[in-house]
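Re: duplicated header lines in exported structure tokens

Our pipeline writes sequence and tokens for each protein into one text file. With two proteins the header for the second block appears twice in some exports. Here is an export where it did not happen, for reference. First protein block:
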Amino acid sequence: MDEGVMRTYARADEVFVAGHGAVLRDAEGREFLDFLAGIAVSALGHGHPGLVAALRDQVGKVVHLSNLFRHPYTEQVAARLCRLTGMAAAFFTNSGTEAVECALKLARKVMHARGTPQRCSFAALEGGFHGRSLGALSLTHGEKYRKPFGPLQPCTWLPPEDQDALARTLRGQQPAALVLEPIQGEGGIRELSAGYLQAARELCTATGTLLVHDEIQCGCGRTGTFLAAQHAGVVPDVVTLAKPIAAGLPMGACLAGAAFADTFQKGEHGSTFAGGPLACRAALVFLDEYEAGLAAAVAARGAELRAGLPQLQREFPIVREVRGRGLLLGLRLHHSAEAVQKELYRQGLIVNTTAGDVLRIAPPYVITAAQVQQGLRTLREVLARFPAAAPTTPETKQ
């Protein structure tokens, strides 16, 4: 198993070979209901006919050009993303981590251009996750991610929802940027309040701090609006996107508002592969589908899940809290989250755990109402097998 591959992942034994919609099939022919979508990536599910047709067509034309040359789709995707987000310009990347790196460089360049290069640190939130490259890792809160790789970029972590701490840090330390996720994904599907997001916007404006929203996991329509922050009526200076943006192909974007759209000059940032014709063609399929009806489907299926999950909380004492919006939801348990996740997997339902005690539910946008109910039934059957209290061990009895 995994011979010749660096052992950085704890992978399941099954080998998945095909899929259709929200269903995956392994090499043995067993089918699984996908409530994870490749960690909030496969918005169009598996085997989407429109995506298949577009990619087959593009592979037969041109796959890669580099950013030295134009192709028909770059500006189409950029314009669509800017319209949907209220931003003014896009830099395409291959991943969310790279989009965050772009945002950090942009913030540093803004401070340099203003004549305040000493404003080179960053502020981020406890529980936040922004990537694993050295820059993005500097903002990722969990020590387990950072400890083996220090020293990293200077960053101050703030407790979520503490507006006083936020004001003290932005006024006193004057970081280049505040970077936050409107809904923390790896932090346990923790949603920031509208009041906190609005206060962060006001404080960043007052202190000249760039406000960067990391919507890599919660953006691109997953919560019912294209950006999660739109629920709070907040427009950041910079927003990073990735995951579902190209329906499973590697793609991300760093989008900047009008005041910062021309920050980078030629040669100051770049990428060999990013924004190529294949990925952009996939992104157009996703955006077309999203605007043609998937946005409404996300709202409908999310409402159905949001109706079913609180019922599970009422039925089973092991369930502590329901979190999230749309099709980015979390079921926080009092204990045994990993054991519950593994049993769900054995019963053919794919979810995963985040923040140790939360079952992450992030199905494809194409999931059907019947599949939502199937998933809720499986959750009910499995949760019923777990006691209200954590099982005792000799250690816990002492």
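Second protein block, exported in the same file:
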Amino acid sequence: MAPAEKQASPGASREQLAVLPHLVRVLYEALFWSPLDNLRGIVGRLRDLGRPSTTWSELYMLHIRTWSGFRRLLSFVVDVFLLPFGLRRRLRVLFGQALGREQPPPLLRVPGLSGYEDESWFYMNGVATNETMALESGRYIAAIFRRPVTVIPNFTRSLLPDLLQVTAQKGYAPMTGAGARALAAIGAALRDPNCGRVVVLAHSQGAVVIGRVLLALDHDRLVSSSNLEKLEIYTFGNPSDLMSTVRRIGALEHFANRRDLVARLGVLAQRSIERGSIHIEGPVYIADRYGHFFNEHYLHGVETRTFLDPRGLASARLYSYLNGAVPAPGRDAA
């Protein structure tokens, strides 16, 4: 956890980095020697593709049993591989406007059990995730934590533009439209006197975006220090260069698969961390496995408490929320 007041780490200064050489060096150090291992670092072990760990899994799309299942897979392929720059979604919005239809909401609400009205939960997805898959992840979060969840969609522009965008975000820190939506929604929840806890889950590129949002909130004097302490952030496969605060927040934890290629660009980039060119605060909980998909490789691991601290213990604060539970009074992040 960040102390109440501290000086920002010298290694975190963007001006001190030669950005492009830094990005190239981190990528070089992250890659496995085997091309097959690089593939496994994203999709997991190839032998597991035919046996998803849960019906919420992204891999379950490959198990087509119904016409709706085929349509979902086709929609994903079109969004992520065939139509660049979010063209399908943009055309849908334009046609909707022309026909006078109601526009899709910028935030997606997933219901949960009642009794958590004093909490606000948010989720932001990573690259190559269309609206359907982001909503599916939100439903999985609601199922295992029993809370209502607001999904802040990080709309895919298709795979290559997504990768270029996250590289720019990692190296040059622009605030995207998704970041602006997240900043507005999370900031409003923090300022709400009836909300006692704001929990944010962020995967992959979503973690990079939330890192920028955290920086903005940390410097936003409209958000008091006491309100900022209500904020808890949990990242998964985090490729960020920077995630830190000057003021204290409630919790900051990271979950990473040791052989996740994307996590090796950020939270597991040990050489860059030692050089001071990557600065990510908070404990890291690790599982010794391949894979970067949120539902299949991360959220299922949280549900089964697979991620362990350096002592080999399942001590993450996030586990205290499983099945609708709440952390014991006074329990803080490690």
